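ARCHIVE RECORD
Type: protein–small molecule complex
Small molecule: S-adenosylmethionine
Source of inputs: curated submission
Record status: active
Notes field left blank by submitter.
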Amino acid sequence: MNEERLSKRLETVASYIPKGAILADIGSDHAYLPCYAYLNGFISGGIAGEVAEGPLQSAKKQISKSKLDSKIEARKGDGLEVIQPNEVTCITIAGMGGSLIRSILENGKNKLPGVKRLILQPNIGASAIREWLIENDWELIAEEILEEDKKIYEVLVAEKGNPLKPYQHKEQELLLGPFLLKEKNSVFEKKWAHELKHWEKILSQLETAGETPDNRTRKEELKQKIKIVKEALQ
Ligand code: SAM
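STRUCTURE (tokenized, with ligand):
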């Protein structure tokens, strides 16, 4: 992977960047995504945000190597603290867990004015992001699920709007994704068949463990998720 050829995962993220956007790629690491997006005419400029010094230096190196110093700026900081309100029109956050992406959005809420689109790629825990989007009036407008190098990734795309529009059966769709559930492609089926097996194994271990309030709650949660996924896979 480099600034000219992205992974399938990041290419999917890039495909949702609106033409002409000013992008903030948060947790940019090597800055391949913003460099690729500029070199392919998706964005007119952007910011690569990084909290860690090593990845920040890789981002700076990559931006210079691509001769994009006047177009893309690498900034050090936690989450959205690297941007100002109305500075960017699109934010990408990729390659992290859903709960970390959710907390970056929550902590940086005051930086979101002017942002028209969020493109979020959680490695796990996409439901935490779907919940945050609903709570904060962002409407999910598209979702993708893909497999690369034996790992399965989801991409969530949201714009300001009616947050409940894509949902009809909220509990099921929060977990599985309203668009992904409707499409039910082979990667979706593979992911949830695998999760189902995993949860059933944990549940059977919990069934043999001693009964505690925590244990009981955990079992109930697992049973509910198993029920939802079984219904979806029927
Ligand atoms: N976005 C790239 C991708 O998808 O290939 C890099 C993903 S890498 C696994 C996660 C990056 O996010 C790391 O470079 C890490 O330093 C950065 N990161 C983690 N938490 C962050 C935060 N709160 N603010 C900014 N960057 C963060």
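CURATOR ANNOTATION: The first strand starts at residue 21 and ends at 26.
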